[in-house]
Amino acid sequence: MQPVLASVAAHLDKDISLAALAREARLSPFHLQRMFSAAVGETPKQLAIRLRLGRAAVLLLATRESVLDIALGCGFQSHEAFTRAFRRRFGMAPSAYRARGFVNTTDVDAARNHAAAVESVAPCVGLYRMTEQKTRTNPMTYSITTKQIAPQPVLVVRRQIRREEIAATIQAGLHAIFLYAQSNGVALAHAAPFARFFAMGPGLITMAPGMNTAAAHETVANDAGVTAETLPGGRVATTIHQGPYDQLPDAWAVMHQWIEAEGLHPGSDAPWESYITDPGEVPDPKDWKTELFWPLKD
């Protein structure tokens, strides 16, 4: 849809029909309208009107062109049509908008920067939170249960990271733990490595990749920040996710909904995910299995 959006933004002084845009995109008008609305959040016509009015508003404040010239230059067929559309969007007539001016005293450079910002941001303002939508023809269903587990001594490396650093943090953390255990004679339990998530904020995540140990012990000082902790025992909600790791947020969301629907309550201890499958032995991500554990209040 990007070429269509760019074409609309580049020809605001012309009335580009949906049929013309559809030919450019090699789609039927119906499919173009549907796909464009889903991606951008408005139809091509709505986008064009919004951009035309936005440009007109800039010109009213930053130039001395007449209202009629601005209307015609922004693709409106008449002064009357422009005034009606402008009033609907901004709540006042173009002449009143110009008379009011900027709310604060604004010099030429500030007005020019404002115009440049509107020109660059307006076409894509609906896309800043857009994520790639991948079609999943067979979304996974989860069998969620509760069970009692015993406390488990572990070695972890706790880190505060950005969301995109999760995979690299797990990789580096497990390397450090394995090296620490070997260097200090710590017996590792035959269990899958895990990652525990303590805080999932809008900016940074606090997490700890870890490995189970055969027994509890006190860690010695080390540059990697490996520490001994305990995975909590007690009642947990648990399920198995099969598929790529980047689909794990879906599994956590389903589990959270299930806990609430069952009238249960998450405990104060942080949840964790255990990587049952060794990706080195099973190369296809669709076959990877991850067990999720969410501690519950008694």
Count every beta strand, where a strand is a DSSP E run of 2 or more residues: 9
Order of secondary-structure elements? HHHHHHHHEEEHEEEEHEE
Kindly estimate the percentage of residues that lie in beta strands according to DSSP.
15-25%
Distance between the termini: 51 Å
Overall structural class, as computed from helix and strand content, comes to alpha+beta
Characterize the biggest β-sheet.
Answer: 9 strands, antiparallel
Indicate the percent of residues in helices.
40-55%
Number of helices: 10
Mean pLDDT: 87
3D shape: elongated
The oligomeric state of the chains shown is single chain
Radius of gyration: 29 Å
Identify low-pLDDT runs. none
Overview of this structure, please?
- It is a single chain.
- By secondary structure, the chain is α+β, with helices and mostly antiparallel strands.
- The protein has ten helices and nine strands.
- The protein starts with a helix and ends with a strand.
- The longest helix is centred in the first third of the chain and has 19 residues, at 44-62.
- Strand 4 (194-200) and strand 5 (204-212) form a beta hairpin.
- Strands 1, 2, 3, 4, 5, 6, 7, 8 and 9 form a nine-stranded antiparallel beta sheet that branches.
- 41% of the residues lie in helices and 19% in strands.
- The chain has helices at residues 2-10, 18-25, 29-40, 44-62, 67-73, 79-90, 94-100, 108-121, 166-184, 248-261, and strands at 145-149, 152-157, 159-162, 194-200, 204-212, 226-231, 234-242, 272-275, 289-295.
- Helix 1 packs across helix 2 (18-25), helix 1 (2-10) packs parallel to helix 4 and helix 4 packs antiparallel against helix 8.
